[in-house]
Amino acid sequence: MAGMLRVLKILSWPLMVAAVYGILHFLASRSIYYPASFPKGWWEIQAGLGASDVWLRAKDGVQLHGWWVRRPDSDLVTLFFHGNAGNLTHRERHIREIFNAGSSVLIIDYRGYGKSQGHPCEHGLYADAEAAYEHLRDRGYGPERIVLHGESLGTVVAIDLASRKPCAAVVLEAPFTSARAVAARVLPLLGPLLIWGYEAKAKVRLVKAPLLVIHGSRDEVIDFRFGKELFEAANEPKIFWAVSGAGHNDIIEVAGPLYGLRLRALYDVVRWQSPGRSSGI
For the domain 31-273, what is the CATH superfamily, name and number? Predict the structure, then answer.
């Protein structure tokens, strides 16, 4: 009996370690997301933006909510993917800048964010992005008229979609190479063991569309070098714009009018290179 107890004690240690590791990995993975579910947020801005509600359903049945802001004089649309915190109501400045630069805007809330159902996870976010893309295709927008624009976590969502679906261009704001790389910077040694996925660097090599990478030189959340490293791995044509003095959340403010001018220049190139025009929504 004593021998059996010793054996059980020896075997229990690996099981305990595995259990603790599993719990830590689960908690670390969940810490990637900071969703603000309805009614949290600034929903009163919808009317001022002229945004109409859009309801989508991902392939796994999760219902998603988004805002559609149509610019009648433009046959170009930007599909915007926000970062890991808040919800679409916290992206008013992005919506206005994109709209003023000459593009209609479809912005969605990932599952678990805003009015969208479900709980966020990597593959879920990718499914949400594809649902929004197919919505635009169903409403008459050809790939040559769809610009994918992501910020922070949304940059990987945009890259994943662009690696699988054709589009006119991709805009990446404060991108990173992988979740593991960011975790290693925040929590050396332990971080990379607990968090992985969101492999942007591996997927960006599959993107064929023109690429604009924007990164603040003083980004305190996602190291500037991650943006440069991702840019180096991408295909041509591509442009890297370092916004001097900008951090992670104030790129638009620091860039000022130049932000809209950069977007407008990109949209003009997209229109000029397009083989045809789609009617759109």
Answer: Alpha/Beta hydrolase fold, catalytic domain (3.40.50.1820)
